[in-house]
Design a protein that fits this description.
By secondary structure, the protein is an alpha+beta fold. The chain has 5 helices and 11 strands, in the order E-E-E-H-E-E-E-E-E-H-H-E-H-E-H-E. It has a 5-stranded antiparallel sheet with strand order 7-3-5-6-8. The longest helix has 13 residues, at 43-55. It is globular, with a radius of gyration of 19 Å.
Length: 211
């Protein structure tokens, strides 16, 4: 069993994180363990560090955070069929549920349905910024109780409807534009003028200055 090291948040407001040994957790049936190659930092990580007990009262400290991670599969659970040891993968780490699933450590447990292969042309660093932005956009667009829109398909099935995405050049916005277009919606978005070309490249038909 390999040794593991993590960046621990010992208590709310602790700065800096405390880098020290952490348990290595083997995967359960539908989990994998990856050796991390790249992680991304999100606003929620700052929120946990500064206001964790107010926003997330169920969290126990010390705590291992981090939602976005990319790496190489080190071990797989008995029920995992999509991945094998050595695969390059990116995943959404469920750090708010389990410390073993936090990204800020050498070895992270991922759920197989929240993990994807990384295309050969994409680096670990580029892949690591995708999961939380993508899942946030997808939840807002398609989840029941939120917008509940038609799901993406290949090819897209036109709905004849338009969708306004505010802040199209943000991480969540870039993902939302592509998902909405794939779901058959015409996308109108806001951004700063310097990002008009970017959002139109992603599929928006019109872009307006949010100022």
């Amino acid at each position: 069993m390999p040794s593991n090291t993590a960046a621990w948040l010992t208590k709310v407001g602790a700065i800096p994180l405390d880098v020290k040994p952490a348990p290595y957790t083997p995967p359960t049936e539908h989990q994998i363990v990856i050796k991390n190659k790249a992680v991304a930092i999100n606003p929620v990580d700052w929120a946990v560090q500064t206001k964790g007990d107010a926003l997330f009262p169920w969290l126990a400290f010390p705590y291992i955070g981090g939602s976005d991670v990319a790496g190489e599969v080190h071990e797989i659970g008995s029920g995992v069929t999509r991945f094998k040891v050595g695969d390059r993968v990116v995943g959404l780490a469920a750090c708010l549920i389990s410390g073993a699933e936090g990204a800020f450590q050498e070895y992270t447990v991922l759920r197989d349905h929240m993990t994807s292969h990384i295309p050969a042309a994409l680096s670990y660093e580029s892949a690591s910024v995708i999961p939380l932005g993508l899942s946030t956009a997808a939840s807002g667009l398609f989840q029941k109780g939120l917008l509940g829109l038609q799901h993406p398909s290949v090819p897209p099935k036109p709905t004849g409807k338009s969708l306004l995405i505010w802040g199209g050049s943000t991480s969540v916005g870039c993902n939302a534009i592509q998902l909405a277009v794939a779901a058959g919606y015409e996308v109108i978005t806001t951004a700063s003028p310097k990002n008009f070309t970017l959002v139109k490249t992603l599929g928006a038909t019109q872009a307006f200055d949010y100022n």
